[in-house]
User: Fold this.
Amino acid sequence: MKRVIPRLLFIVLASVLIGFFFVSQSEAFSGRDLAKGAKGDDVIELQARLQYIGFYNGTIDGNFGYGTYWALRKFQEQYGLPVDGIAGKGTKKKLQGVSDYDEKYVKAQLAKGNKFTYYGGQPLEDQVKKGSQSQKQMQAPPKYTDQDIKLLANAVYGESRGEPYEGQVAVAAVILNRVEHPDFPDTIGGVVFQPGAFTAVADGQIWLTPNERAKEAVIDAINGWDPSENAIYYFNPITATSKWIWSRPQIKKIGLHIFCN
Amino acid sequence: MKKMVFFLTYSFIVLGIYTLGTTRENEQLSIALNTQYSNSISDASQKLGELEDAVKKSLLFEDNKSSSKEREDIWRLSSDIKSSIATLPVDESFSTSWMNYLGRLGNFAKESTEQGNPDEYYEVIQKAADNLNELSSEWQVATKGLLSGNLSISHWENKLRDSPDGKANWSKMGQSVMEYTETVFPLTASESDAQKKKDLSGIKEAKIAEEEAIDKFKQLFPNVSNDLIVVDKSRKGSPYPFYHLRFAESSAIGYIDITQKGGHVLSYLVERRMGKPTKDYEELEKLAEQFLKQADYSDLVLEEARENDTAWHFVFVRVNPENGAKVFSDPIHMKMAKDTGEVLGLDASEYIRKEKLAPQPIRKVDWKQFFRPGVEVMDEQLAYVEDRQMQQRLAHYLTVVSDKEKSETYKILVDTDTLEVITTEKQ
Assistant:
């Protein structure tokens, strides 16, 4: 009996450990396929695992861009998998088998905004430089920076927070249309801060913290939506003081704003 | 009583200190703004003089090369003045016309150096020199007294708009500049073509009725088109007529714009509460493609995809059947919900203004010779893209990696005939 108890304890302990191992394996990647353009925790894990085995040298930021794409293809090629640049079931399984992922370490560095790497075989403490990595919050076409998106969201919130969603997207689109137009400055900052151009800049409301709705409206506008139909001006007919603005050809009215060319 | 006197005295002192602090702060802000505006005005004035000189100097030489520095100066100074004007609260009608004029002048000078006709250059720039001479004197009158210092913010705003005594008539100056633009830089053929595109004059189809537009909406989006549809029309002066339908069903609120000619969807967007994501990339891509087929958009391929918190954004582009080239100016944007897989948005406003594509020779290129060592071409396709002259050009569409270690990726478009690099965009 004395011999049986330690054996039983050993079997129970071993089962728990094996079970824990398999549970943690299956809890790693979620079930979804990862392709170029994806973002989120799954992509962080994908980048970290690819870096662990030396395929990925870029920043671990959770955004599946070209750097991740080429690294994944290289991995698929080397391990005899179909080379499509998509992390499907088979690719993820293989990757899990040949790499490691210290989620706690990676997430902690991201939360602290540290610049870090995650190469296998190197002490983790040597792979961290504090406070120098900014994390991209939204996926946007390459020509837009995080600062552009933030400024646009501030402008949209300050100018049109009480307006329907469509009107908020239209306000963002007008700013983008101005950047492309020869009569206006060539940058988002230049357009937004052009004196007299936006009421929210004049009265300081541009510095209010934008909500998620305003950010979503900006994302839709930079992804191509333009409910204003190419407008470069808008005004509120109740509060507008400029006579000149009434001379512009009007396109449509959304909420309280009239959009025009 | 003593307490009352103490309390009142204390309050007055606190109020006095606060008022003094605020006044000083306002004064400092006023001085800072005064300095900034004065700087912009003096900068714009000085550069206007330099621009006038550069324009005149460029007329001295017979060949393009001798005046290349002056032409470069015209381009640079135009851009600098634009930046200065953009920081001033100048009358909108003046700043709009003035920035347009400067942009055209700068671009004309730059482009004429590369591929201009000398006779045309002298004719245009001679007119521009006369205009600038005229404008310089008007500018001096309008900005007189603006550099005297210590002007309040409201004083600046009054001075940079039309004054009641008519001394500073900014809108009249704006009108003059607009006339200069129309006479010196009339729209080129390609610009005029771009303008026509906006008018959708290419659509020859019959006009549809309001009821037909609603039917089209119901057919394409049956889930959101049962309740409350408000139909509006584009306003008088709109570049092209369309029906603007607004709807609200359950938590979904949105709009769809359908052209009156031909009943094409210009734009559709819905806002609603979003649930937990259940659909992945491949499912959503398939659903988007299915929708496009159902909506009779059959000549498109996926070009880009981007995931955000609640939706994926897809960009599809038209493919020219003759050579399989992608037409970047004819895209359809789609927004697909990650929770249910339904279409949250569609924008076909550029797609329905189909570009006219001209045949163009395709020269074979040895990319190893074209790029520096270490640059690797990962993918090569054909695509139509708008060049600086706003003309559609067939281009080699390359995905290039410059540094294998870091995998810096670029999209490069090279004209198939002239081998000119039209665009280089870092990914």
Residues 2-186 of chain B form one domain. The first strand of chain B starts at residue 229 and ends at 233. The CA atoms of residues 229 and 247 of chain B lie 5 Å apart. Chain B touches chain A through 66 residues (CB under 8 Å).
